[in-house]
Amino acid sequence: MKSFALAAVASVAFAGTASAQTEITWWHAMGGALGEKVEEIAKGFNESQSDYKINAVYKGGYAETMTAAVAAFRANQQPHIVQVFEVGTATMMAADGAIYPVYQMMEDAGEPFDQSAYLPSVISYYVNDDNQLLSMPFNSSTPIVYYNVDLLEKAGVDTSEMPKTWDELAAVAKQVVDSGAAECGFTTTWQSWIQLENQAAWHDVAFASANDGYAGTDVELLINDGVPLRHIENMAEWAKDGTFKYGGRQSSGNPMFFSGECAITMGSSAGRAGVMSNMPDTKIAYGMLPYYDDVQGAPQNSIIGGATLWVLQGHEQPEYKGVAEFFSYLSSPEVQADWHQFTGYLPITNAAYELSKEQGYYEKNPGAELPIKQMTLNDPTVNSRGLRLGNFVQIRDVINEELENVWSGQATPKEALDQAVARGNDLLNQFDASN
Amino acid sequence: MQTKRVTFRHVWLPYLLCLPQLAVTLVFFIWPAAEAIIESFYRTNAFGTSMQFVAFENFQRLFNDPSYFASMRVSVIFAVSTTVLAMTLSLLFAAVSDRIIRGTNAYRTFLIWPYAVAPAVAGVLWLFLFNPSIGIATYALELLGIDFNATIYPNSAMALIIIAAAWKQISYNFLFFLAGLQAIPNSVYEAAAIDGAGPVKRFFTIVLPLLSPTTFFLLVVNMVYAFFETFAVIHATTQGGPGQATSILVYRVWKDGFVGLDLGGSAAQSVVLMALVATFTVIQFRYIERQVEY
Amino acid sequence: MVENRRLLDILGHILMLFAVALVVFPIWVAFVASTQASGAIMSGTVPLWPGDQLIQNYATVLGKGVAASGAPPILLMLGNSLIMAIGIAVGKITISLIAAYAIVYFRFPFRTFIFWTIFITLMLPVEVRIMPTFEVVANLGLLNSYGGLILPVIASATATFLFRQFFMTVPEELCEAARIDGAGPLKFFWDILLPLSRTNIAALFVIMFIFGWNQYLWPLLVTSTENLYTIVMGIQRLVTVADAEPQWPLVMATTILAMLPPVLIIVVMQRLFVQGLVETEK
């Protein structure tokens, strides 16, 4: 026991007697090579000035990092900055007194901050209904379509131009299966994000009431009708003959594309490097998400996923000054362009995008600019800014579960979506009541 | 509850002996459990900045949710299947291993490896093997004409988690069964053999009854394991899907509380679990133990 | 013997070989995966025979692998895992041995109450009550300490249950004889019960060591300084790459390395475990 106590005392003492530099803690969820890059950014900032020192601490995956921050806040041990995935946005935002909105923190710290320098469709996911930025975008991606050109050619598909509409894509996928070039036409990762959330934005229809949740917490899902229902009905139809095949939650469908079982997949734009390293000898083409051409307003713009940096309350003002300076450093064109090019995440500022163009990044990397173009195709509307749903983590699970009942033939699309809406609304009501 | 016929008498020593365990239990189990009970009557947001007393609303919500009872059913199917599979296989292996003369050590050394694998890693390994497109086990099953796909078919998913969970537990059961078997004196076997009992008959009439304390202990441990320590396996493989086909109770608590940050709802689930566990434990000690021979 | 020993033996060996194949196969697959180039795993049926990247992959993992993702050196993480695993094993065995002894060999007021208080914890792992437990640990100022890593994990009655079960099977005569010889409770415990329990202690040490070694969520929550990172956290850091495919060969290589200490413990301890059994019981 004694040594435990000593260790505890020692660690507290160590934290207390740090040098004149103000220490800032940043909890992040980036493992692998991304984690290394995060350390590099922190190091770059620490070397660029002498007043502050950023400590980047890895706290597990997104869920673990967020929960660790929440638990730490409840115990008054919170970090200054925490990286939170996009589905946690509403939970963070509703925590009055726990979070420090970025626009306000920048203002209080007297740090120059021009919100118009950021790409509108990136920050639109993280602004309040008055268009003020709540958290600092860090890693963002948007779904695109990946084509295995070799397989398409084997099936006799004309590959000079990739499909634009769902009808075209379904025809190509069917041709692949019918010709025997591959067992399955297309698959998808992240079914809720890509096939429902993004399809709603892409067709400029609402996913949920109250401006997709931006206008308040009294929200209901609107996915059991119109475009979402039509799309899931089509997918169910396509699933019958192998035109579409479900590959599992999150990105667990990837091996189906890598192994050539499926000729087409839809996945995060940040997965491009993974596709290339797993299919080094295959010719890959990239395309925007398909749309239904009879829907007015389509294609609109796709929405993003990924994570942002939230600032937590409960620290001294001088420390927030350091956080503000760090955010400026992070947003600088050089740091952003480097991060964007290294990781495949979207650039968050116009300047970083321009710099990457100047550096010839997009010429050398076909397919790398497509997601930016798709995401900025039009200025975001109320239906394509993003989603602000409470208990969104569980809602995505509900959607996963109900869609799986469709793929396994246990429910019709209408039944499943009705059920998803009912269960989702229950979670939304809970969230509304608890805030 | 049983005790020894012969016991010691001492005024303070037994308390002193129980003290460390009691202290740790009180501070790190009872205290948090009490907080969970209190929390189950509140509706709070994640950061705890808003708290409302809602009485039994969290429980009502739980019991009005048909999927909660479905989840109980799934848990029981999963726990019983895992326990039966893990215990039968390991008893078989242990019985055979105990009877053969050479090579027992080598076999044993291999059989205990899975125990060293972290549950989450075990899940990943089996997921690899049963991956619908790249898994070698799926490929083998396909040759046999079985379409095994744990991402689409509920039965495949259930089979996958049962196999993955039971695999981890085989080593543990094997060690205990083997130890139990080796503790049975050779004279018992010899006497039975002289009476003309064959190996199978001997096993069921003599060995199995003598193993009953071990079997009872393992039964408890395996049920506890299957009910409460398998969510890492499930998290790494099916995540409760497809649909809610493999969403066992503990996985739900963990997911709603730890990932979904619905603290009131997850606390209510914890309380229900604790009540079930308490009942379960009492029944085990009160009734099952009576029939076990020592 | 009456039956055909030889045939049974051969059958037995066949069955055991089958058992070993069944049980070891997934680990073999992990090892095979750890010897492949990074693209080889996801793009076809997982191979069954080692690839040519064995040395390279393990060198990467040991040399910079885990550390390259910003994690502390692998030896530090292994050291922390070792401290935590041993702390959990020794701590849990000590407290549960004496508690089980008191419960089985003494009659005293509140005995039943204490019994149930302890045994109610038999189930519900730390993860299920993780948020309130975190608050308790934070209140006690145990965040970022070995105490915070170890103590909450040992608050469970599995070991106490095992010792209780074992003590119940110890012949009554031993205790009677000890009392007739005038031995006090502590002397009986030390000279007779403890040596008898050697095998159980060995078994529990293995169980608890591995249990402690494989802890992941709890260490992640209570530590926020890299000095206290464990090896399983290091593995997770390789696996949780958002939006990209993990480097499976490196993950598997780290997994195999992280498995070695617990396997070593099992292999070493099983000798003691079995030896003890044979000596005392037969």
- The number of domains of chain B: 1
Please report which band the strand proportion of chain B falls in: under 5%, 5-15%, 15-25%, 25-35%, 35-45% or over 45%.
Answer: under 5%
Largest interface: B-C, 107 and 112 residues
Strand order of the largest sheet of chain A: 2-1-3-9-4
* Distance linking N and C termini of chain B: 14 Å
Count of helical stretches of chain B: 13
CATH superfamily of the largest domain in chain A: Periplasmic binding protein-like II
Give me the count of strands of chain A: 9
The parts of chain A where pLDDT drops under 50 for at least 5 residues are 1-18
Verbal overview:
Chain A folds into 2 domains: 201 residues, Periplasmic binding protein-like II (D-Maltodextrin-Binding Protein, domain 2), CATH 3.40.190.10; 205 residues, Periplasmic binding protein-like II (D-Maltodextrin-Binding Protein, domain 2, 3-Layer(aba) Sandwich), CATH 3.40.190. Chain A is 48% helix and 12% strand. Chain A contains 20 helices and 9 strands. In chain A, the strands form 2 sheets. A 5-stranded mixed sheet of chain A has the order 2-1-3-9-4. A 4-stranded mixed sheet of chain A has the order 6-7-5-8. The N terminus of chain A is likely disordered. Chain B has one domain: MetI-like (MetI-like fold), CATH 1.10.3720. Chain B is built from 13 helices and 2 strands. In chain B, strands 1-2 form a two-stranded antiparallel ribbon. Chain B starts with 12 loop residues before the first helix and ends in an 8-residue tail after the last helix. The mean pLDDT of chain B is 86. With 282 residues, chain C is an all-alpha fold. Chain C has one domain: MetI-like (MetI-like fold, Orthogonal Bundle). In chain C, helix 1 packs antiparallel against helix 13, helix 3 packs across helix 10 and helix 12 runs antiparallel to helix 13. Chain C is globular. The C terminus of chain C is likely disordered.
